Amino acid sequence: MTQVYLPRTLAELWSYLEGKPEALVYAGGTDLLVKMRTGKVTAAPALICLERLAEIRDVRETADAIRIGAAATHAELLRHPLILTHLPVLTQALHTLGSPLIRNMGTIGGNICTASPAGDTLPPLYILRAEVELCNGETIRIMTIEEFITGPGATQLQKGELLTGVLLKKPVEYNFHHFEKVGQRKSMACAVASMAALLRLSPAGVIEAARLSWGSVGPTVVTAAVVEDALIGEKLSLETLAAAAGKIKQIVAPIDDVRATAEYRRSVSGNLLLRLLDARPPS
Amino acid sequence: MPLCYVFLRMHSTESDESHPPDTEETSRVNPYIPEIGKPVPRADAGAKATGAEKYAADHYGEDLLWAGVRRAGVAHGRIRRVDTEAAAQLPGVIAVLTGRDVPGTNRQGIVHKDQPVLAVDKVRHCGDGVALVVAEDRATLQKALSLIQVEIDPLPGVFTADDALRPDAPLVHEDHPQGNVLLKATIQAGDGQAALAGCDILLEDTFHVPVQSHAFIETENGVAWQEEDGKVVLVVSTQAPFRDKWEISHALGLPLDRLHIIGPYLGGAFGGKDGATVQCLLVLAALHASGRRVKMWWDREESFIAGYKRHAVRMDYRLGARADGTLQALHCRLYYDTGAYAHLGGEVMALGMEHAGGPYRIPHTLIEGWCVYTNNPIAGAMRGFGVAQVSFAFEGMMDLLAGKLGMDPLELRRKNALRRGDRNAAGVTMTQSTGIGDCLAAVQDHPLWQERKAWKRGAGPFRKRGVGVAAVFNAMGYGRGLPDSALAKVELTTEGHIRVYSGVSDMGQGNATAFVQIAGQILCQEHTAIELVQPDTERTLPSGSASAGRTTYTYGNALIKACEELHRRLIGRTALMLLSDTLDDLELLPGRVKNLASGREIPLTVLAAMMAPEDRVCISQFLMPVVRDKLDTGKEFVIGFPHLLFSYAAHLVCIEVDKLTGAIDVKAYLAATEAGRVLNPQSFEQQVQGAIAQGIGYALCEEVLMEKGRIVNPDFATYIIPGALDIPEMVSLAVESCEPSGPYGMKGVGEVGMNGPLPAIAGALADACGIHITGSPLTAERVLAALQKQQETP
Amino acid sequence: MTIHFLLNGKKTTLDVAPDRRAVDVLREVCGLTGTKEGCGAGECGACTILVDGESRLSCLMLAAQLAGREITTIEGISDEGHLHPLQDAFIQHGAVQCGFCTPGMILSASALLNRNPNPSRADIRMGLSGNLCRCTGYQKIVDAVAATARREEES
Lengths: 283, 794, 155
Description:
heterotrimer; B: alpha+beta; Aldehyde Oxidoreductase, domain 4; Aldehyde Oxidoreductase, domain 3; 30 strands; 27% helix; 24% strand; C: Ubiquitin-like (UB roll); DNA polymerase, domain 1; 2 domains; 5 helices
């Protein structure tokens, strides 16, 4: 029998962690409990569930930034007006994540710490230049999500440390947000490939700024300055996008798995760029 | 069989003004007679919607033990040692058993007894059981299963039908006289393949379909215990409780009268619970449990690994036609991969072969089939039993032919559609209702077909739209060689209710509701006065398996006879009580029998009190008619060929293809179905819609993936079945006819809808993009690859 | 450990292992077998329950997480023997076939209607997209939820 702690405050959490430093932490359980069932994670000395930790569950706004508590569920974020207003690319991604049931349970912090190449919130968080806030009860570390996630399922999270929040600058310089996921069905689908994009388009249709990222086509989310550079300063056209698509296909490093071949993922990561042809800045 | 006789004796009670006022109980629900032809809500829906219905999985009990199986995990090998010592020593473990502990023959199998309950010498697929553990709780059970040391010397395996047929192939069953060939069979009609030579057009192609999983939501499970008198009771999620009893008796060497099987409503089955799953294992466990209840409930992964599957098939087709599109000759070779044990493999292939020419007139055919053992999971019955596979091939050939001739694909199908009196491609005369032509006409008249060109023009950027059609059919009943029989039993209870004892399972298809309707119709009772007993080998009578689209047809026919007999008795006994010298004025009404002339009534409770118990019970048997033709072909089939009755359907699908991802989005679906008369439009639509959804899954995403016999996607995260967003709005048209042999003119409708979606979607894909994919499922990846190849070819 | 919670409106106290799955506690300890299990991994939705009115997967919740919550299972959704409007609509519209997904579907639908009393058919499909059904093809389930929403709006 394993103890299960449900701290209500961070102070309680630190004290549990002090007593049981080997305890495994989960929020929604949609990842850890599945892995424990299949034996991918073996019995922990204790479990700490974050679902009642109100301190790290809210969304706050400052003049130029948004701070999301790590234990905010996907469903809460999906219907949060601040996210919809300032980070529509994240809203779009959340819309495709799991199912209503999974979104009611899973959290953004869990999605980040699971660090799956297919994590649906990750491509948006990469192009939003998200920073993660890591706390061990005494000190706080802040680093970019790109630094934090080091490989499939691997992060810089240290023993005794908790991901407490996600910090995002409002991407005011972009007027077009886009996310698309290719999965094997329309809900409950693990991304076979995905792409997130932020663009600034001039009234004449010239791409003035671009940030792009791809999920499920490498050990971590793939970003490519060379592709962004190929777009910036160009008119949004099929030719421009096709040229960029050719470049990204060279850069991504997908694998074959039970859902798709690497070859398919490579093709699609380029093709998804073409969807930006529909991009129109909000009038 | 009187032609729709019962239609003539329907009578209404609407005019009866002496109807007693509603009781408080019935005033909430409008009382009604669950009449034939009305969309009567299902008899089982209330208990299911409130969570009150007890499925097999919901049976626990005091002092419950848990049983589980250690699986081989090796596709082919010799068992060197199964060391159970450590597991047996674990506190909380009640018993650890191996094949050597199985009394009886240790052999299961519906037709061929080749499947051990627990393997002794050899394992033939990864899901073979090698040890059985009974423990106090699930955690102990898991621990004990992991402590069993299994040493298996691997043998080279065979994992495709092609591999299995090589002369030097390793043998799955060394003692099988035909090597790896479970069954080789031939159906020939007319001049066979010789006629291909004289055809104006000859087309050739090869099709592949993968393994599909039933993916019912309630996985295989049951509870068993031994009573003080030695009898073992088994509550199990099964499609065939009476056959289970015989199978357990044979495999475990227990006398039939020591087995009592109870089969509650199932949480889905679709063919996957037609045969041995947990039955023998649980009874064996119960024999070692000192009277305590033992529960076994496979988890999702075990259900994938050890459960039955739909056969993967390779289909080589050659089709010959005249220049005007008249079909002339067909030659096909079908290779069914039946996995490690025979199960129903030969019978599945037989049905596939019988349907290999589609619902068309093809005068000259040669249909060859090989049903082959491999070291893959066991294949068996699944909705569209062998037919869902060949439907992809024959309809694919029809689309190819239409393309070659520049002919409208629907016109081509109408031109060749079977009519009553024709011989089908297996050479059997269609003597019964044959409605495929009417189904195709209904599709042709529908706006989805009429307005398809405009609709297709509306595709957005990077998208293409297409419309496809398919004409399909599916036989009903067991076919020749096996009596397709049911024994209906109906009782007037002492409470004045009508109790129907159903011996045939309701796995969700709704036959139980049809039985309530039949009893309500004939005995003129409200639905609240009709009770249903689900299969129970001590209360109900053997009525065959819930399979082959036969449940309502066969049991329904038997039930009509039993209810009519009970009706006669109730009237006759009332005459005694009311001192009537004629039966003419006596009318059976809800809750009573009334003399319409005198106005005097006898409540059914009083009548029941007067009648002797045996007088209140009527039993009747029905035996399905069989084909009268004497055929000089298909002689290799011991059972299951040919069939007399078929249901028909024409399907239309509208799809949109995303050229950037290859994904197919199904936008609209139409099915026109002929299954005789419709007893209940709601139940009918349920079957049609549900079959289409499973068919769409089969068409687009469902594929059990294997690496050397090991399933690599044994869960719902990786074996993808459609969700609510993946299935479009569906239109179901009932193209009614009257099948004289059917109860109220009906035929089974459960299976035919499964066969249409794959070929229709493949046709729509060809229509949208000009690509012809012959290997299913039509995943985004396959479609994108085909689109890229198309672009590269000038 | 001892946990206190409100189960279908009744104050409930149980002595259970804190790491036991909620679905097992409900089915085996509380005898509420209307909550089904189909996959154990959050993929099928058969084990859906309401936790403080929100839909959750009880196969991915541990007993300790029930503490202090208001838990509603299919057995608790009807009111004093009167069917919940969704239950009635599922029956009338033919949304029940084998019925093994039905409790989870009804609870997901109820959570959906609580948040969005006037959903489109697309909204309903989205709301039920975590609950797999292998029998119905979903259409009659969508019909039943849409009819319930209409009925609630009219009354």
